[in-house]
Amino acid sequence: MFFDPVYLAFMLPGLLLSLWASFKTRSAFNRYSRVRTASGITGREAAARMLALGGIRDVEIKPTAGQLTDHYNPLTKTLALSQGVYDQASIAAVGVACHEAGHALQHAAGYAPLKLRSLLVKPASFGSQLGFYVMFFGLAFQWGGMFQIGAILFSAFVLFTLITLPVEFDASNRAKRLAVEQGILAPQERDGMNRVLNAAALTYVAAAASSILTLIYFLMRAGVLGGQRD
Fold it and tell me: Residue 137 in contact with residue 151, Cβ under 8 Å?
């Protein structure tokens, strides 16, 4: 159990997908960070225009430290844009900013998957780490009840990664459509935006795949999915 090659076999696909997704995201972002928008619009201005389109006036747009640390917080109604996005007039910056503004539009519209994801934030955070170790020790010492508790905790994290997929895909689709429809980006600039956002979407797919494979592995080792209990 402590040195299980089966575990490595389960984790390797998710790890490789995560590494590839991270490489694709940074590569696309870096490439299109060097391509200036035809209109000269910055990430902050693009996000503000997206919010105005939805009639949203109570969301604060602010800079945040780091690279690709952009996010929308529905609890505080703040849209944080990273250093390479906030005041940059590049296709990559505008694409990321419009995507994050897409989450604010989801929030304003009462988008159900976003509501569910927000409810799962704390259980998922709790379950992602604690659930793994509770399952591990429950299985290692053959404590069935402990393993079941860990599996339930970790399942909250798996559910979070799954519900994140439609939330992120929908935000990107809103951004891609509105950015061109409203003249934030020219039609010929959409391809660059698509590449940046599609690459970023892979990171969420990788996270979901890794969490599912982890849960399947432990359930199999516990004999729940037809595996052989140690």
Answer: no
Catalytically annotated residue among 45, 100, 168, 189? 100
Domain span holding position 133? 5-221
Q: Smallest Cα–Cα separation from 114: which of 124, 122, 104?
A: 104
Report yes or no: 93 and 33 within 8 Å, Cβ to Cβ.
yes
- Residue 51 is encoded by which pair of tokens? 């919010």
The whole-angstrom separation of Cα 212 and Cα 1 is 19
In a domain, 226, yes or no: no
Mean pLDDT score, 169-188? 95
Q: Specify the residue for token string 């595996």.
A: 227
**In which residue are the tokens 């200036």 written?**
36
Report how many domains make up the chain.
1
DSSP secondary structure letter of residue 173: H
DSSP codes, 12-57: HHHHHHHHHHHHHHHHHHHHHHTSB-TT---HHHHHHHHHHHTT--
Q: Residue 230 falls within a domain, yes or no?
A: no
For residue 206, the surrounding DSSP H or E stretch is: helix 190-221
Over residues 130-154, the pLDDT tens digits come to 999 999 999 988 888 999 999 999 9
Determine, yes or no, domain membership for 145: yes
Q: Evaluate whether residue 228 is within a structural domain.
A: no
Residue with tokens 């929308």: 72
Distant-in-sequence, close-in-space partners of 134: CB < 8 Å, separation ≥ 6: 146, 147, 149, 150, 153, 154
100 is catalytic: yes
